[in-house]
């Protein structure tokens, strides 16, 4: 406990240094310089990653990011509000802006790689069909040659039939054949060339798109977070209702002061108010925070389903081509055909054989699976998204607390606004409950009066008769 207390005191002292506009004492100056240098180092690290994404050399990116770290550290030391913007920027990397950047990165990895792999597998399947047709031409010529030999043998056997005065055979039999495959070979060569050209063009396009997207993704993400941070601070300063649902220490002090003055106070909160008002610090999540986390996770879930769909399409095509490959490998590579022709005159037979191939080993398609290449970055992105989702509700509170510390006047106005808003809502609820209670009592009286009147009338009538 003493260690935690000491750590809390150190953190409280450092935080007070961050909020100081004027630096007093050399110890405070050194501590503040160290803090600003650490924050500048974080910003310089982000810049270094962006420069490396733009294919800058390691030495150049280190020199630029080092200079940026020094300049940023000095600027943070001199400007209190720049420290606020930097802290909000770093926290925003873990909230919606960081989530959107991670989703964009995951989408680029999955869509580009899966689309490229699907096209590669389809191209391999088409090239396999072209290769098979190419190797079928020798087989066609071979079987035509076998037919020629069979017919020639039949003519030779016919000449050996015994001659007589009624039958006369002349040896004028000629057999020629021609396989007209020039157009087929030309078309096949054209298809092969176009297929290769189309594949190279699409692959180069995918490579260029992936390279450009990868290089600009980091910079676009950082710029997007910077712009979103600026709008967030502006909305906080100009709109009292924006993210004004937190019970902070300033709110507790203000409510206690109102109680001491004898004015209406709020604490403790009712059960209904606890559903939409968040007390801080608290490790437990309120119903509002659970809803915030669910809304935060909704686009993540939608994109995860889209990623899974693309991966499943790629996997289904891989399974289809793999099944074709497995079925071809089960079949024998060569097929032998044998024929026998009987000679009834000489009581003999002639054997003819022909051997062809069902497929060629080099023509079997070899599919690839994109998940084997992208699973490492994809797992990292999904893990980061899950972590960001878990801390999304508390990081939003942290941003509000940072802004409240750097803008105490605005926070005081926001506390008064929230206090007055809750008082008015509670008074309206109490008034509504009182009206319901009075209405219930009035209804009971109205229901009771006829019975009372009937009872009085009955007694009066009985007394009059007697």
UniProtKB/TrEMBL annotation:
<keyword id="KW-0812">Transmembrane</keyword>
<dbReference type="Pfam" id="PF07782">
    <property type="entry name" value="DC_STAMP"/>
</dbReference>
<feature type="transmembrane region" description="Helical">
    <location>
        <begin position="211"/>
        <end position="233"/>
    </location>
</feature>
<keyword id="KW-0472">Membrane</keyword>
<keyword id="KW-1133">Transmembrane helix</keyword>
<dbReference type="InterPro" id="IPR012858">
    <property type="entry name" value="DC_STAMP-like"/>
</dbReference>
<feature type="transmembrane region" description="Helical">
    <location>
        <begin position="25"/>
        <end position="50"/>
    </location>
</feature>
<feature type="transmembrane region" description="Helical">
    <location>
        <begin position="374"/>
        <end position="393"/>
    </location>
</feature>
<protein>
    <recommendedName>
        <fullName>Dendritic cell-specific transmembrane protein-like domain-containing protein</fullName>
    </recommendedName>
</protein>
<dbReference type="InterPro" id="IPR051856">
    <property type="entry name" value="CSR-E3_Ligase_Protein"/>
</dbReference>
<feature type="domain" description="Dendritic cell-specific transmembrane protein-like">
    <location>
        <begin position="242"/>
        <end position="419"/>
    </location>
</feature>
<feature type="transmembrane region" description="Helical">
    <location>
        <begin position="62"/>
        <end position="82"/>
    </location>
</feature>
<feature type="transmembrane region" description="Helical">
    <location>
        <begin position="300"/>
        <end position="321"/>
    </location>
</feature>
<dbReference type="GO" id="GO:0016020">
    <property type="term" value="C:membrane"/>
</dbReference>
């Amino acid at each position: 406990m003493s260690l935690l207390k000491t750590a809390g005191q150190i953190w409280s002292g450092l935080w007070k240094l961050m909020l100081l506009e004027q630096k007093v004492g050399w110890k405070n100056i050194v501590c503040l310089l160290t803090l600003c240098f650490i924050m500048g180092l974080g910003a310089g690290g982000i810049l270094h990653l962006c420069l490396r994404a733009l294919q800058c050399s390691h030495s150049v990116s280190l020199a630029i990011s080092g200079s940026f770290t020094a300049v940023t550290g000095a600027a943070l030391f001199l400007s209190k509000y720049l420290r606020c913007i930097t802290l909000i920027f770093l926290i925003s990397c873990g909230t919606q802006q960081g989530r959107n950047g991670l989703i964009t990165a995951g989408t680029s990895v999955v869509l580009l790689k899966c689309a490229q792999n699907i096209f590669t597998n389809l191209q391999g399947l088409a090239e396999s069909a072209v290769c098979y047709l190419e190797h079928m031409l020798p087989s066609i010529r071979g079987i035509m040659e076998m037919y020629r030999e069979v017919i020639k043998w039949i003519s030779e056997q016919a000449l050996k039939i015994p001659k007589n005065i009624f039958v006369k055979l002349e040896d004028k039999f000629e057999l020629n054949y021609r396989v007209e495959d020039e157009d087929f070979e030309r078309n096949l060569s054209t298809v092969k060339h176009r297929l290769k050209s189309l594949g190279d063009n699409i692959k180069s396009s995918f490579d260029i798109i992936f390279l450009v997207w990868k290089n600009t993704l980091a910079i676009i993400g950082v710029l997007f977070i910077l712009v979103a941070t600026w709008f967030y601070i502006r909305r906080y300063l100009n709109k009292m209702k924006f993210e004004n649902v937190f019970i902070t220490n300033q709110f507790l002090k203000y409510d206690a002061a109102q109680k001491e003055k004898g004015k209406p106070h709020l604490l403790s909160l009712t059960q209904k108010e606890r559903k939409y008002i968040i007390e801080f610090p608290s490790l437990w999540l309120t119903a509002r925070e659970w809803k915030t986390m669910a809304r935060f996770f909704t686009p993540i879930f939608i994109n995860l389903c889209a990623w899974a769909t693309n991966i499943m399409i790629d996997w289904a095509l891989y399974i289809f081509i793999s099944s074709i490959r497995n079925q071809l490998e089960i079949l024998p590579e060569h097929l032998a055909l044998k024929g026998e022709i009987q000679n009834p005159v000489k009581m003999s037979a002639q054997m003819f054989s022909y051997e062809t191939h069902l497929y060629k080993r080099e023509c079997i398609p070899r599919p690839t699976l994109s998940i084997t290449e992208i699973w490492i970055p994809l797992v990292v992105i999904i893990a980061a998204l899950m972590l960001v989702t878990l801390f999304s509700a508390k990081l939003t509170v942290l941003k509000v607390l940072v802004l409240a510390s750097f803008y105490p006047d605005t926070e005081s106005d926001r506390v008064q606004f929230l206090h007055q808003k809750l008082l008015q809502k509670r008074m309206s609820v109490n008034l509504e409950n009182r009206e319901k209670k009075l209405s219930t009592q009035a209804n009971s009286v109205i229901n009771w009066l006829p019975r009372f009147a009937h009872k009085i009338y009955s007694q009066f009538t009985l007394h009059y008769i007697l």
